[in-house]
Give the backbone structure.
Amino acid sequence: MPSLDSRRVRAAQLAVICALAFALRAYVISHMREMGLFADMQEYHDRAMHILQTGTLPSDAFRVPLFPLFIAGVYKLFG
């Protein structure tokens, strides 16, 4: 069984790794938003709104409908 000190060291290492991963993700998201990385968000929103308003899937097959269905469900539940 590992000693208490070795468990504390492992926990501290894990905390540092998680903090670095979070900081890296926050940096990337804050800088890529200006470049349109999230441009498809509007399309998913439009598809979810179409599902809510008409009760049908959009007629084209450009995107798989599972995520827009999920978003439509979230919109229905939470407004």
Notes: DSSP finds three helices and no strands in the chain. The chain has a mean pLDDT of 86.
